[in-house]
From TrEMBL:
Residues 1-30 are annotated as: Disordered. PANTHER family: PEBP (PHOSPHATIDYLETHANOLAMINE-BINDING PROTEIN) FAMILY PROTEIN, UNCHARACTERIZED PROTEIN YBCL-RELATED. It comes from Lipingzhangella halophila. Belongs to the UPF0098 family. This is PBP family phospholipid-binding protein.
């Protein structure tokens, strides 16, 4: 796997790593803008995942799965759920579900992953189904991390 070219950044994650309140579930629940570059040759599509490994559950908590993003897309904005195929999140809904860590649990890290895939994803699998079914199709992956605390 190539791990040097694919990049993901966000102007909505501060220099200190903080994710703004407007991205939280109890606020505007707006996904951050994500900028993607260095997509490797042979990419059929991109997938986006937001995952909180600090959630107090065994496998962490999935806040977003997004499929069907064309390989030439360089920016994903707040309208991403209506432009691409939004999958299920840990709240039992489809689309972006922003940070909502337990009060007093401390800061949580929100990993926004981009996956460059050699084949298109069918449907809208859960994160575990996606990784199980498409792990062999990942050409490259990278992430940007935001921090949020209630």
């Amino acid at each position: 796997m190539n791990i040097k070219d694919l990049r993901i950044t966000s102007p909505d994650i501060g220099a200190d790593g903080r994710l703004g309140d407007r991205h939280a579930l109890e606020q505007d629940n707006q996904p951050p803008t994500l900028r993607i570059s260095g997509v490797p040759e042979g990419t059929a599509e991109l997938a986006i995942v937001c995952h909180d490994p600090d959630a107090p559950v065994p496998w962490g908590f999935t806040h977003w799965t997004l499929y069907g993003v064309p390989a030439d897309v360089t920016e994903i904005g707040p309208d991403a759920d209506s432009r691409y195929r939004a999958g299920s999140n840990g709240f039992g809904k489809e689309g972006y579900g922003g940070p909502r860590p337990p009060e007093g649990h401390g800061p949580h890290r929100y990993y926004f992953w981009v996956y460059a895939l050699s084949r298109a994803v069918d449907g809208t699998p859960s994160l575990r189904q996606f990784l199980d079914s498409y792990g062999d199709a990942i050409i490259e992956q990278n992430r940007v991390v935001g921090i949020y605390e209630r």
